TrEMBL record, chain A:
Gene Ontology cellular component terms for the protein in this record: plasma membrane
Family the UniProt entry places it in: Belongs to the binding-protein-dependent transport system permease family.
UniProt lineage: Bacteria, Pseudomonadati, Thermodesulfobacteriota, Desulfobacteria, Desulfobacterales
PROSITE patterns to which the protein is assigned, alphabetical: ABC_TM1
Keywords of the record: Cell membrane, Membrane, Transmembrane, Transmembrane helix, Transport
Listed Pfam families: BPD_transp_1, BPD_transp_1_N
InterPro entries: BPD_transp_1_N (IPR045621), MetI-like (IPR000515), MetI-like_sf (IPR035906)
Organism: Desulfamplus magnetovallimortis
Intracellular or extracellular location(s): Cell membrane
GO biological process: transmembrane transport
Transmembrane segment boundaries: 12-30, 102-125, 137-161, 181-200, 250-269, 289-310
Name of the protein in question: ABC transporter, membrane spanning protein (Oligopeptide)
UniProtKB/TrEMBL annotation, chain B:
Pfam families listed in its UniProt record: ABC_tran, oligo_HPY
Keyword Membrane among record annotations: yes
GO molecular function annotation: ATP binding; ATP hydrolysis activity
GO biological process, one term: peptide transport
Domain named ABC transporter: residues: 5-255, 274-515
Protein name as it appears in the record: ABC transporter related protein
Localization (cell): Cell inner membrane
The species this protein was found in: Desulfamplus magnetovallimortis
Keyword Chloroplast assigned: no
Membrane topology recorded in Swiss-Prot or TrEMBL: Peripheral membrane protein
Length: 319, 538
């Protein structure tokens, strides 16, 4: 118990340090953006006096380290500041967008993770057969296409030709869960195509990797069926790499889906980030950047802890 | 009585060098109920391949080319995968060499026991579980009711091996294949497993194939013995007959009791070249793995360091070489105190104290040639290069009985295990050491190859008066080469003295157990020992 708790605490500590470093990088990155925020926001007609007054209001006249400390302090307390573009609190903006992003990510994960693990197990079971190669070729071609291309193909097929799913994933808070689900079915299908190949191939490789072990030979000699050998004997020992690749892909679903959001006009966090960069809405950029990093680090942390728990040797130090 | 297993004209091929080549030739074998057949031979003899083929199973890259394998009237040679699956585990079961590797680390031991009977549809889970506990009890596993709930890594090597014997019994098969079930174990643990094997074959009236390279072990359990070499039968016979009157020269060679050296006297006057006093060492900083070690090695003599795995033998070697600096104590080498940490020792001290390791495979860089491997210490310690080095390397190769012209340009990967170990010896000799620490140098090698290495070491000692500190768990080796014996248990030396003194009673209690556990070439040895233990127990 002590060992594993200590290990987990260490990991959490390391994650916090990483988040801190990233916050620094985000801040510096935003600082380095060319041009002056006040001038950009106020436009070319602004007089030097108004620009100066606006800078003061934004506290841009203070030295960077003071602004950084204030920003971080506020962020930790849940105050993300106000948007420069429309003066609304950033938290409000980000909250709604983040919940949309998480909804899309979760729905996709719900389809993609079981699907890819199942396909990976099947591919390992029928390794080097035609079936295995078919799965590999199909999934590989999906990751070889850019995701917006897949998105357009799906739109062309399901909304234009068959006319069964909407091509725009527009949702608002008044919609019920199933209406929302119906609205986002095409974007989540697109994302499923993108992430499945990666997870499925890793599952297959990890399982095949343990098939050479003596305990697999033992299971064969005990007269156990092939499917059970893969699922009961090989898969539990292949969990660690699978958990890792699943975590990375889930993080990608939160962080990296801006292209898909744009295609389906989906109000996710990625699109907000891109819009805000264009508008130089710095508080929003900083807040969403940091949220993305936290999502990534959290997923990796979860993967680490789960892999530890999946190993009886480590888990047993509990007792 | 009918034959349970009948193998006829079995030929097995392996795929290497881009084609199928025969590895087992025309083996015929019959096994009756209640009978144990020993398969014996060195590695590469095809014992395990035959054992697995008896279940219709071949490893990756092998195939059964022709022949017939018949279990209770079912022909396995051309059976479908599904038919084979139905036979495996239920009619014939297998006990593997390394239980630690053959148990799935992710599942509890009892779940792995129960799996076969449930999957074969022979028993319900609860019923199989009850039987498991019963068999655990019969095989003398501690706390049989709960031991199955543990994961494999929570059992000791001997317990795990017995749990695997139990697992093989789970479907009540008529035939069990034991593939070197005690090779990875200490002598004292080996007894437990051998007793379990006896229990099963005699009391439960099963037939068994017992595969091993150790004739003394197989003599304890087998009724008949087949001696194999390079996939061919050398000779076959009743156990007692075969041991008493072997027909073939190869069998006699395997039987030869090792006795390599003339007795040498150890007098107190002889130079002590290594004197170790009050050594303590630790890995964690909390508990000491070595306590109060006192040890002397004299010039031109061999000290054997004996103990079970985990007794601290190899740690002591690491401490003497300075790889693991002792936390206190002193090491006196060739008359002067040397630093405990190798980093602060001078080059000459390092040179005079060399080491040979257990695994020649990992001790040699596979990408280097013999010339480079042996040339390295010559250059490092003496600055010898070029033609002079070439001459020295050839001289050393001649010393270790390898032909210089054939071997000097070979890569380490192109050598056999025994040849690699010889190269390791040459590398140590190149430094012209006064003392060589040999850490289990023969335990990874086949019996005859290992004896060749011991012969060589003995010969070198007679010629150059070099000293050895010889670490081993094999008492037969100790009897063969030691002048002095040091016995270790749990990080302490519990007995030491001249060979004769230690080997003649009265012994320390543990020494007695250790000595009594070494199988003798006597078919009644195990029975006598178990009877004796039982009677003292009661």
């Amino acid at each position: 118990m002590k060992n594993i708790l200590l290990l987990i605490c260490k990991r959490i500590g390391a994650s916090l340090i990483t988040i801190f470093v990233i916050s620094l990088i985000i801040f510096i990155g935003v600082e380095l953006l060319p041009g002056d925020v006040a001038e950009t926001v106020l436009g070319q007609s602004a007089t030097p006096e108004t620009v100066e007054a606006f800078r003061k209001e934004l506290k841009l006249d203070l030295p960077p380290h003071v602004r950084y400390a204030t920003w971080l302090n506020h962020f930790v307390h849940g105050d993300f500041g106000n948007s420069l573009a429309n003066k609304r609190p950033v938290a409000e903006l980000v909250n709604w967008r983040l919940s949309n992003t998480l909804l899309l990510a979760m729905v996709t994960a719900f389809i993609a993770v079981p699907l890819s693990i199942f396909l990976g197990i099947l591919a390992a079971l029928y390794r080097n057969t035609l079936f295995d190669k078919m799965i590999s070729i199909t999934t590989l071609s999906f990751i070889s296409f850019p995701e917006f291309f897949i998105a357009y193909v799906l739109i062309a097929l399901f909304s234009v030709q068959l006319n069964i799913f909407p091509s725009l994933a527009i949702i608002d808070d008044n919609m019920g869960f199933f209406n929302k689900l119906y609205a986002i079915i095409l974007p989540s299908l697109t994302l499923t195509c993108v992430v499945t190949a990666h997870m499925m191939r890793q599952t297959r490789a990890a399982i095949i990797n343990v098939l050479g072990s003596a305990y697999i030979e033992m299971a064969e000699i005990k007269g156990i069926r092939g499917f059970r050998i893969i699922v009961y004997h090989a898969f539990p020992n292949a969990l660690s790499p699978v958990i890792n690749v699943v975590a990375v892909n889930l993080a990608y679903l939160v962080v990296g889906v801006v292209l898909v959001e744009v295609v389906f006009v989906y109000p996710g966090l990625g699109q907000l980030l891109v819009d805000s960069v264009a508008k130089r809405d710095l508080p929003v950029v900083q807040a969403s950047g940091l949220i993305f990093s936290i999502a990534y680090i959290f997923m990796n942390l979860a993967a680490d802890i789960l892999s530890m728990l999946a190993n009886p040797k480590l888990r047993q130090s509990n007792f | 009585m009918d034959n349970l297993l009948k193998i006829k004209n079995l030929n097995i091929e392996g795929f290497y060098e881009d084609r199928w080549q025969p590895i087992v030739h025309n083996i015929n074998l019959e096994l009756k109920r209640g009978e144990v057949l020993g398969l014996i031979g060195e590695s590469g003899a095809g014992k395990s391949t035959i054992g697995l083929a008896a279940m219709g199973y071949t490893r990756q890259g092998c195939r059964i080319a022709s022949g017939s394998i018949n279990i209770e009237g079912i022909e396995l040679y051309d059976a479908s995968e599904e038919d084979l699956r139905l036979v495996r585990g239920s009619k014939i079961a297998y006990v593997a060499q390394s239980a630690a590797a053959s148990f799935n680390p992710s599942h509890r031991v009892i779940n792995q026991y129960v799996e076969a009977p449930v999957q074969h549809g022979l028993m319900a889970y609860d019923e199989a579980e009850k039987e498991a506990i019963d068999i655990y009890r019969r095989l003398f596993l501690p706390t049989p009711e709960t031991i199955g709930l543990r994961y494999p890594h929570e059992l000791s090597g001997g317990q795990l091996q017995r749990a695997m014997v139990a697992m093989a019994m789970s479907c009540k098969p008529d035939i069990i294949v034991f593939d070197e079930p005690t090779t990875a174990l200490d002598v004292t643990t080996q007894i437990e497993v051998l007793a379990a094997v006896k229990e099963i074959t005699e009391t439960m009236n099963k037939a068994a194939l017992y595969i091993t390279h150790d004739l003394a072990v197989v003599a304890q359990v087998a009724n008949r013995i087949m001696v194999l070499r390079n996939g061919r039968l050398v000779e076959e016979g009743e156990t007692r007959q075969l041991i008493k009157k072997p027909k073939e020269a190869y069998t006699r060679e395997l039987l030869n009791v090792r006795n390599l050296r003339q007795e040498k006297s150890i007098s107190d006057k002889m130079d002590v070249i290594l004197k170790v006093r009050d050594l303590k060492a630790t890995y964690t900083g909390r508990e000491n793995v070595l306590e109060d070690i006192d040890l002397d090695v004299r010039k031109g003599r061999t000290v054997a360091l004996v103990g079970e795995s985990g007794s601290g033998k190899s740690t002591l070697a690491r401490v003497i070489t300075g790889l693991l600096p002792a936390i206190c104590g002193s090491i006196n080498f060739l008359g002067q105190e040397i630093p405990l940490d190798f980093k602060t020792r001078d080059k000459d001290t390092l040179r005079r104290l060399q080491m040979i390791y257990q695994m020649p495979d990992t001790a040699l860089n596979p990408r280097q040639t013999v010339r480079k491997i042996i040339g390295r210490p010559l250059k490092f310690y003496f600055g010898i290069k070029g033609r002079e080095a070439e001459e020295r390397i050839r001289e050393l190769l001649t010393k270790i009985e390898l032909d210089p012209d054939t071997y000097i340009d070979r890569l380490a990967t192109e050598l056999s295990g025994g040849e690699k170990q010889r190269i390791c010896i040459a590398r140590a000799l190149a430094a012209r050491p006064d003392l060589i620490i040999c850490d289990e140098v023969t335990s990874a090698l086949d019996q005859l190859v290992g004896e060749g290495i011991l012969d060589l070491l003995q010969d070198l000692q007679n010629k150059t008066n070099i000293s050895y500190l010889f670490i081993t768990h094999d008492l037969a080796t100790v009897k063969a080469i030691a002048d002095k014996i040091v016995i270790m248990l749990e990080g302490r030396i519990i007995e030491q003295g001249d060979k004769k003194e230690v080997l003649t009673p009265p012994h320390h209690e543990y020494t007695d157990k250790l000595l009594a556990s070494v199988p003798e070439m006597d078919p009644d040895w195990l029975d006598n020992l178990l009877d004796k233990r039982l009677s003292t127990f009661i």
